[in-house]
Amino acid sequence: MPNHADLLAAARSTIETPLGSRTVYRLDALQAHGDIARLPYTIKVLLESCLRNLDGGVYTVDHVKALCAYGNADAKAKGGEEIPFMPGRVVLQDFTGVPCVVDLAAMRAAMVRMGGDPDKVNPLVPCDLVIDHSVQVDAFNSGVALTINSQKEFERNRERYEFLKWGQSALDNFSVVPPATGIVHQVNLEHLAKVVWDRDGVLYPDSLVGTDSHTTMINGLGVLGWGVGGIEAEAVMLGQPIFMNIPEVVGLRLVGRLREGATATDLVLRVTEMLRAFGVVEKFVEFFGPGLADMTVANRATISNMAPEYGATCGFFPVDEQTLAYLRLTDRSPALVETVEAYCRLQGLWRDDRRDVRYATVLELDLASVEPALAGPRRPQDLVALSAMKPTWRKELSGFYKKPLPAATKGAARPAAAATAVLESQGDGAPVMLDGEEFMLRHGDVVIAAITSCTNTSNPSVMLGAGLLARNAVARGLSRKPWVKTSLAPGSKVVTDYLKQAGLMDDLEKLGFFVVGYGCTTCIGNSGPLPAPISQAINENDLVVAGVLSGNRNFEGRIHADVKANYLASPPLVVAYAIAGTVDIDFEHDPVGHDDAGTPVFLRDIWPTQSDIDAAVRANVTQDQFRTEYAHVFEGADEWKAIKTSTGQLYSWVDESTYIQEPPFFVGMTPEPPPIGAIRGARCLVKVGDSVTTDHISPAGSIKKDSPAGAYLLEHGVPVSMFNSYGSRRGNDRVMTRGTFANIRIRNQVAPGTEGGLTTDFTDGKVKPIYDASVNYKAAGVPLVVLAGKDYGMGSSRDWAAKGTFLLGVRAVIAESFERIHRSNLVGMGVLPLTFRAGETPATLGLDGTEVFDIEVPADLKPRQEVAVQVRRKDGTITTFNTVARIDTPVEVEYYRNGGILHTVLRRMAAG
Fold this sequence. Notes:
The structure is a single chain. The protein is an alpha/beta fold. It has a 7-stranded mixed β-barrel. α5 packs across α8 (230-237), α17 crosses α23 (610-620) and α27 runs antiparallel to α28 (733-739). Mean pLDDT is 93; it is low at 408-426.
């Protein structure tokens, strides 16, 4: 292969496009070095990035050669070599974006302390932050719910919004989409993404990383992108590439068509179950086959959105005619659409199923086999066929939740319309009086029914399907049950436009589905309080009630503290369960309700046909809606415009702020890092089992007043009503450190028999909050470790799960396996991720968390090197076992040596 300058010159070409003459770096110029035509589409995007950025230093001919070789031999054997990848842009949401901007502001302050130029700390690639995570469902079932929730959002978050406005004015290449506009991934899909980027006269594939794991949604548009931790995103913002191992690419061939009654939601839940069972963690997935021909981008985006739930880094759909149709619908310019087609055809990025693409593995799914389903009650990969919902729920109720099965009752005090056979068989429950109406609340009753999350609200087919079902239900005299908290939180205002144009908003509102906000609500735990009588009945009687939501996650403790069982479902099913009022129902044989004449009404009687849904989409979703709603997307409402903020290149930290504080990460930082060394005398702070999520580690939801974080806020004069959420407080390390491992559902085996953020403090032998124990350990100079099972850190790309771990004093996490993003985040914070060797677990090694740990980290640590761990037990016996350092690349070794990614970048900037 020639040197980098010759290779670059050979690949550089000029083409004429509707945008004018543009430079491209042609992949077919590399055909002599590999079978480029057989490369997976995602590998071609990585290859083009390496080729375009070739400099002989960071990006080398060897990197290009490694990617070209993917198509030459067995793809599985060719994965694994390290390459750099420079995403074209970064997207952020406010929960993860605020701490990113806080870190940049802190880096500027540190740069001044180190004698450098703070202006060097500036985004070098386009960055868009969409404020979507701060709205909570305080008001619902009302025409003024949207106004009330928006007002409360601005009251609670003014400090954060002032700070983000400072960032917008002080930082280059940084734009903010104001609150009440939409959800980041839907705004990205409908407006921000270009598919082909045009910058400085060069065309290249649009690509991105985002500080939210569901950034993968954009893969449905043929744009490569995935979620990373905030610290990794900050490095990209500052011009640093992501160093990654070439992934295995799994091909999923889709054939056939969805059956009548099955939705895109049912399909993605089936894909999630299938791929999670197969195992695609740290792999790319590409979809191909005849099933794509008629699959809309909206349906593809729903599938791509849930890539984190099926474990893949991304779930990619190549560009084709469906992509172009979507770009036209969403008001992208005709010149851009023509350029996208020309460029993708030229570069072999256009979908062509005649190509024999070389995948590591090929799987197949017949779309006709997909049936209506839900997923839950605790994990998104746990698929439950709608037809099996009732027996499956009862098995969960008696098995996992240890509750008695429903028994026949003597006539429950329910509203007459609810007195169906299915409801009468549920047991006595607890009496509730709400708004002048008396009823019994029982196990399995649905207390939250939320049409939420960009996973589904980006999809007109399922949204209009929900509206049509509501229309049919209202026409039959059905209504929601009084104990159900209903909400509709679209991912963009376009959704409201087409629902109104179709005349379906009135029907949804009659069933309680009023718009409560344009942002992430119930899906991320911002479900707001339940009515007090409902909450009281649940807690006093230990009821296992349910939530049904059109979201993408249902981990324990995420949706609502009072709601233990949560199911993911399509928007039409959310409406159906709001009417039924319980998950203890067989929709095939049990009526969803009764009409005014007392005639039973079944779900099949009100379910819209696919032809009706398709007709509604064609008639009511228009280009004008997208043009109107996105014309002034960065301007915001009057409340946003009225916010004043400080200016200048350095942020003026406010000591009294409980939202924004300068983090301690760079305080006392020296020009040279200290050497890597052993970790000695460590104690176990937390020991957990399998599938512990970043929600368990760093919750995003409500702050309890009796928690360490709640105590801190009360001490600083914040009333409970203004606590807001952990997610909104991520700009304040004092709150977030106290909130680490504070999830109400976490079970720490170091404090057996407890639930919540408790541990045994071995400095005094007492059980206490994890934060309080960490303070004692820090004062005694004792380093800490975490022990964990499989899939540790699964879920959201939550950098505070790693930051909080670091600030508690944890130096290493020893797990059976890690989820991709959290492992990377731990390295990015200078915390050592270690995995047990195959066949070894804490149980097989007899570890119970009471031991003292010595971890022999070598000074010349290498990627995936074995690291010995010696443990001293209470009885004085000593055991040694080997672990594998999950520091996967030479660049990650450098990050760990420096104490983290940002420390590495800052030292380079200061030295340069």
